[in-house]
Amino acid sequence: MRRSLLSSLRAHMGRLVAACLAIVLGVGFGTLALTAHSSASHGIDETVGAQYKGVDAYVYPDRESITPATVAKVKALPQVAEVVPTATAYMEASFPGLVRPVSLPIDALHPTTQISSPGTTSGKLPTATNEIALPNRLAAKHHLTLGQSLRITSYNNKSWTVKIVGLIDDKSAFGQGAAVATPAMVKIFEPDGYIQGVKIAGKPGTDPQALADSVQAVLPNGVQAFTGKGWIEHEVKNYTNGIDVLGGVFGMFAVIALFVACLVIGNTFTIVIAQRTREMALLRCVGASRRQVFSSVLAEATVVGVIASAIGVVFGVALSALALALSREFDWGMPPVSLHLDLLSIFLPLLLGTIATIAAAVVPARRATKVAPLAALRPDVAPAAASKRGVFRLVLGFLLLAGGGALLGLAATEHQVIVGVAGGVISFLGVLAIGTLLVPALIKVLGALPARAGVPSRIAVANAVRNPKRTAATTAALLIGVTLISLTCVGIASVRKTFDVSMDGQYPVDLTVMTYNEKMPASAAEQLKAIKGITQVVPVHKMVVKSKGEEYSVTGIDQATAGTVIHNPALVDKLKSGTALVDYSTLHRLQLKEGSKVTIVSGKNKLTVTLQLGLGLDPFNVTSTDLAKLAPTAPIAGYWLASDPKADGSKVIEEVSQSLPSVKELDVSGGLAKRSSYTKIFDVLLAVGIGLLGVSVLIALVGVGNTLSLSVLERTRENALLRAMGLTRRQLRSMLAIESLLMALVAAGLGIALGLAYGWTGTSALMGGQTIDGKVQYAVPVGLLVAIAAIAAVAGLLASVLPARRAAKVAPAGALATE
């Protein structure tokens, strides 16, 4: 059998190429996920460990603060060699070219011999109270060099001028690193600053655990001592929680890709074994037992699985190295990560790929052994969908579909995500189970129009539905990929729309620009409108009134232009003459409720208004016409701004914060920052989800091409007969292209429909309990869904190119002569 196995592999390797490619893609993707995760985790281990090099113990204020007295007790311990308390002053720095200062954390730098200190790329570390060292990237951003002076301001408006004496190496820092100054200078900057932790180095030969225990004995309750290694593990866990979650997500997509690969592999082995029925029957006739035939198929699958999985591991490692190299070219606020390989990321994908290949070949192998030798020598008949097994499968499929649909409805109404996932899986299994009935029926419906175009189209439709089981199995892999991509697009679009509506309720204005005790310049509106990304600028007037010893700021905005900057239409409708929009705290201070009437008095002027709830606006808002009745000369105190949804929110905020140079203090607030950050998250999730699931679609299309290739071999005599009857090579290629296109379009259409249903129910289950009013907004990303269908159609056509060329090259006479 060993000789038979080797000769079989040599003879049929061409037919197994597609299965090998599916394994390579699935295993390569799994390797990429595991390698990227292990590299990121290892990189963080090294980065955090470098910050605490030489630290044998660390004191952390868990529930109580660390006092200087506590630090003195730690210093007094006989095992302690060095003690470095960590403290940070949170200041503002006036960088050249900026209108207003920006925040800058400054760490206290203690001289040490055992505990590591920050390294410098140029210059030196500060030693005097008028010196400072800046992170290298921050200095480069603001074009600062050694020897320049920098103005530092505290929260209580005290200022100091310091000299830049060094640039800190921050290549391994997370985000923007902190500047450093002497402990005396940090104390001057922030006299009331607190100690954030204490680094401790023990004397030579001191056991870190014994040192930590001794330190813990002199610490008050609520202050905890770690070993240096223990604290590094604690910090690494804080950073890697997100990476572990991301690793789980990558792993889930890798499992999906491997599952789709299993479908392709199973379908491939089914067809290959069906084509080799006569060959296996001859083996049975010459003495091979069922067990030997079964073992030979599994051995063949094992060889294919091991070789393809090994290639996939190499492919995945190469992709990981390329991705990490590209990540180092962009500033994402993360330290550079180098490739790190471990046994798990290498051998687990190899093992899973091999096992998956063997598992996918088990059913075809068992089917091959059940055919009697003499019966197998007769021509094979295509399996009928109306067999007892087929009827049972259809009944089971409809039951699963109904049960899963009920669970999806329950999840949407009761907002239960786990129930929704279970319903989605069960209902999708039902769709796969009835695929032998559903897919051919849809192909017939979809193929009705092209079937009128000529003989090749009619033959293509007939070929596509000739073997319902094979057609359903072929489209199943593509159906999974398209469904998941559509679900991701619809789900993220619906969650984003729900989030946008919720944000409109909580933060109806993108940005508010206000001054205190200053006048806005006459050209303020023009200056703000000139900022890239700002679309609307509406002035607001303010006045202050007193009632029962309390002051209330009343904001007036033009009713005609309010709708251009207020995103919540309900608030715009409420804002009319005789109405005041107030927040909850103002209602509480006035001891009134919504619908109450109040009279505002300003000198001799009076105004009676009805209170309505206006969340997200200023505490007390009226129309500018009503405000003019109280204070005709009320000044413009600020502006409400609307921004372009496509603009970079962080850049818009930064430019607005640095605008209006004649104003000393400018308060910029609003929902743009939060909206922009979540929008970026949604965009990244959508891009990552589509990219990752695209791998499964690629594997599925390999399966479509593989099925067509094997069906071409199966139908060699039939195609030759068609050629002999007058079918041209071009018509033959068109026939196969239409057959592939029909399968791809049916999988795409059905997958998009399922994606819409799953995306909407998933959004309701996930977001229904998160919104204030419990309402969920459903979205249909038409452009993305059309693109998915178009890509599936084009890919289906491309999958037919090689099989069609192979079929067209066969000479009719030669093909008709084959057995």
TrEMBL record:
ABC3 transporter permease C-terminal domain location = 252-372, 692-811
Entry protein name = FtsX-like permease family protein
What subcellular locations does the record give? Cell membrane
Tell me its family: Belongs to the ABC-4 integral membrane protein family.
One Pfam family, short name: MacB_PCD
Instruction: List where the protein spans the membrane.
Output: 245-272, 293-326, 346-365, 391-411, 417-443, 476-495, 684-713, 734-758, 778-799
Topology relative to the lipid bilayer, per the entry, is:
Multi-pass membrane protein
UniProt keyword terms in alphabetical order? Cell membrane, Membrane, Transmembrane, Transmembrane helix
Question: What is the predominant subcellular site recorded for this chain?
Answer: membrane
Which intervals hold domain MacB-like periplasmic core? 23-217
